[in-house]
Amino acid sequence: MAWRRDLKVRLTLRIVGVAAFCFAAAAAYVLFEADRSMRSRLDRMTEVAAKDLALQHGKRAWIKDPAPFFPDLEVLATGVLAPGLCLGYRDAGGAILQSFCSGSQDDDPPALFAFVYTALFDPGRESARSVVFQGRTVGAAIAWGVPLALTAQAWHEVAHLLAIMILTLLLLCVLVYAALARALRPTQAIHAGLERIAANDLSARLPAFDLAELSPIRDVFNHLAENLQASLAERTALTRRLIDLQEDERRHLARELHDEFGQNLTAIRALAMAARETAARDCPALLPECGGIARITADMMESLRGALFRLRPPDVEELGLAASLEGLIAGWNGRSRDRTRFELRLEGNPDALPPAFGTSLYRIAQEALTNAAKHAAATRVTLRLSVDAAGEIQLTVDDDGGAGDNVPAGGAGMGLLGMRERVATLGGRMSFETTARSGSVLRVAIPFDPVRAA
């Protein structure tokens, strides 16, 4: 249960448990003290009674016409007896000649309490004091308690203490929980700061706390956030520089392939055509070989044009992002030969985005379509680009390929890691999901400032 993991509840329960233990100890002390007081009272009663009975023996011996009744404890019992106590006289033969008890109007205590109290204190145990006359023991004054009455008195005291304890513990629960909730309120700020850090908001900082125990946490958190923010800024700058270098290298490689490899292929094709004309005049048997060279050269030139297009796509700044993406989709539809249908859906005004956004979005879409075509075995691939006027760019590429084949792999192009790096440099987020029924979905969300874009 969630409440079991709540620190406030745990601390409150522990404090209340300690308080309950203290109350239980206080109740036990009260019971033991009451029992000790009762024992002391019984001892005093027997001591006074023994002296009085000794005097009564003396009167009988000294007075020629003594009172016919002995012992006489009525007057004494009236003065010393308390509720639940008894006073009596036992002769030398062990017979109780006289006894007086004071009753109690208390209700019967609970059976469990009576059992425990009787086992611990033995309330019916008697106190005895010998009655000595002329050096001879003539009997004993005895006092004892009525077990049920003394147990009821003890329960009456404990019940009052128990009621006070319950009310005090309930009030203590409320006050302690409120105090802990107020003391632990800074943990909510810590939790909110950690959530912002987890959401890549490295500008999160914790305020100063009144508690000395939380101040070091605040200092460490802010220091860590500052270091992460600086590290992320450096990483973003480095990634942006690497992407620029990659684009420069791609342009250089495309230029080299076009100028060197393309011209050589064109020359080979021209030589093949010339050789075919010569073979047609002098050696017809060589015509198939010449035709094969021409076809291979044409295929190589077609592959070269595709590689050049991937290395150096149309200038997004000149054509616009929308036209560049339309050309990209048209190229994939032309190369797929109806095995996979590529679709483009645009919302908003993609051409209003800054050049850095346009180039990166084009590269992300290019790599996502390449992954979907190579690894998803899909029959339909849809590219959606939405530019929200509120300030968010959403790019989605979904396909209906099989779940086992649609994991992007780092092949040609920059791969999934490269897409993540491009998205990170723009301050966005990217997710990739696969399902057994609906294929895979790549989602990219990038915030931007519409005012600056305008």
Automatic annotation (TrEMBL):
GO molecular function terms listed in the Swiss-Prot or TrEMBL record: kinase activity
The protein's enzyme class: transferase
Signal peptide: none
Main location: membrane
Coiled coil keyword on record: no
Record EC number: 2.7.13.3
Ranges of residues in domain HAMP: 181-233
Limits of the Histidine kinase domain: 361-450
Subcellular location: Membrane
Pfam families to which the protein is assigned, alphabetical: HATPase_c, HisKA_3
InterPro entries per record: HAMP_dom, HATPase_C_sf, HATPase_dom, His_kinase_dom, Sensor_HK_TwoCompSys, Sig_transdc_His_kin_sub3_dim/P
Record-annotated membrane-spanning stretches: 12-32, 161-180
Domain of life, source organism: Bacteria
SMART domains referenced in this protein's UniProt entry, alphabetically: HAMP, HATPase_c
Protein's UniProt name: histidine kinase
Taxonomic source organism: Dongia sedimenti
UniProt lineage: Bacteria, Pseudomonadati, Pseudomonadota, Alphaproteobacteria, Rhodospirillales
